[in-house]
Design goal:
This is DUF2135 domain-containing protein. By secondary structure, the chain is α/β, with parallel strands linked by helices. The chain has 8 helices and 15 strands. The chain starts with about 30 loop residues before the first strand and ends with a strand. The relative contact order is 0.13.
């Protein structure tokens, strides 16, 4: 068990810094009632595509949602595209996860080929391909699946870390998810709620063109199907999935007749669902409005400021967050209050998070270093650290595989995740360089 030693400094006045503090928060003014609004994209979307959709959401809702002492900040919960083939493989993995099926690549291959006539498949394998070619195809499928699952886990960890960090800092989380983004959001929001049940009604999402099989992971604000998701009857991407998987039923006739602005698959977010001439737009407006009206603001556990580092990990018992400040002060579980910042959230019971924060008025020029130490556990563990700066920039999460627990012997040599150099812009404002 970790032995906590209260530092002598707690009973004394805080040491004076040798530097002049800077203005560390130069982003837009933040109110106490702050909501983070994300767009979660589907298959084949470049980051620029996702930003275009997020920008459309911001234009539609930033100043029209309830705004009495409230602010809405918009961002992208980006699911990296690895090409259509790999993206579709991810969808198969996610659908199999919904069913509780192990990710066997040969089972997945069977699902992919399900719509082909059996005799055609047999002819293809037995007549047209040699044994070596068949094995090569199997190997390629396995490799593609491994890559798809690796990217899938990375994207899920990124979004989980960001959403949890938002909630801990007292921010609500609203997500509009399109296509595959619904499968991400279903599992991520469910995991966040399970890990932070006291904040379960502070995060929610509305699904557009959803391939998911249920709405079980939505927040308590969902009272009727129409405020949970919208999928058009003529969506040519979602409908074929129904032949092999359980998919939420279509719930809107989105064909406006003379309107010709939709894409030929009737599936794209901007063209086929969010255009103001479509019935689906009104349904999205209703769902977003329900979230804004009913999601509650979580209690603030983790501070926000000029510099904030947030650590999460897996099932192993304890990974520790460490910070070194410009004057050499080492902030960690034995010394939670530093010269500039503090470890205001500490966890010793798996998953995290842990949080180090420097207030806006306390940032100083010099170098801040953020690291992790695997304190207690009996198997390799992956640590994930995200960095949030007072200029609005977000870095990470960066991940590292920690092979063995080191106990207190690792306190003085944590694995470094970020180095942040802070300088004065000449007007007393902090300028950040991150390595």
């Amino acid at each position: 068990m970790k032995r906590i030693i209260l530092p002598l400094a707690l009973s004394l006045a805080a040491p004076l810094n040798a530097y002049a503090s800077l203005n560390g928060c130069v982003a837009e003014e933040q109110t106490e009632k702050r909501t983070m609004f994300y767009y979660a994209n589907g298959v084949g979307n470049s980051f620029a595509d996702a930003v275009d959709s997020m920008t459309a959401l911001e234009s539609a809702y930033k100043y029209t949602l309830p705004a009495e002492e409230e602010t809405y900040t918009f961002g992208v919960a980006y699911n990296n595209t690895q090409g259509l083939q790999t993206d579709l493989m991810q969808v198969m993995v996610q659908k199999m996860t919904e069913y509780g099926i192990d990710g066997d690549p040969y089972l997945m291959y069977t699902l992919i080929l399900e719509d082909f006539d059996e005799s055609t498949i047999e002819h293809f394998f037995d007549v047209l391909l040699s044994d070596s070619e068949i094995q090569a195809m199997r190997d390629a499928i396995r490799e593609t699946m491994v890559d798809a699952m690796r990217d899938l886990v990375a994207d899920q960890n990124l979004q989980t870390n960001i959403y949890e960090s938002d909630l801990l800092s007292g921010r609500r989380v609203m997500v509009v998810a399109h296509s595959q983004g619904n499968l991400y959001s279903n599992s991520i929001v469910s995991a966040v709620k399970e890990r932070q049940p006291e904040r379960s009604n502070s995060i929610g999402y509305f699904g557009v063109a959803s391939p998911a099989g249920s709405v079980n992971n939505y927040s308590a604000y969902v009272t009727v199907q129409d405020t949970a998701y919208v999928t058009a009857e003529d969506d040519r991407v979602i409908n074929p999935l129904r032949d092999s998987f359980t998919v939420l039923p279509a719930n809107i006739d989105n064909d406006p007749g003379i309107f010709e602005g939709r894409d030929w698959m009737n599936h794209g977010f901007l063209q086929s669902y969010f255009d103001s001439e479509l019935d689906s737009r009104a349904r999205i407006d209703t769902g977003v409005g329900a979230m804004a009206a009913n999601l509650t603001y979580p209690a603030t556990t983790a501070g926000v400021g000029a510099l904030r580092a947030s650590l999460t990990w897996g099932e192993q018992r304890d990974v520790d967050l460490h910070a070194f400040e410009p004057d050499g002060t080492h902030v960690y579980y034995r010394n939670k209050q530093g010269s500039d910042g503090s470890l205001d959230v500490d966890d010793v019971t798996s998953f995290g998070p842990e949080n180090y924060v420097v207030p806006c008025e306390s940032i100083n020029p010099g170098e801040y270093t953020i690291g992790v130490n695997y304190y207690a556990g009996n198997a390799p563990e992956t640590a994930s650290v995200s960095l949030f700066l007072g200029n609005g920039q977000v870095y990470g999460p960066r991940e590292t595989l920690l092979e063995n627990s080191r106990g207190s012997s690792g306190n003085d040599s944590p694995e470094i995740m970020f180095t942040i150099t802070v300088a004065d812009d000449g007007n007393g404002n902090a300028v950040y360089t991150v390595e």
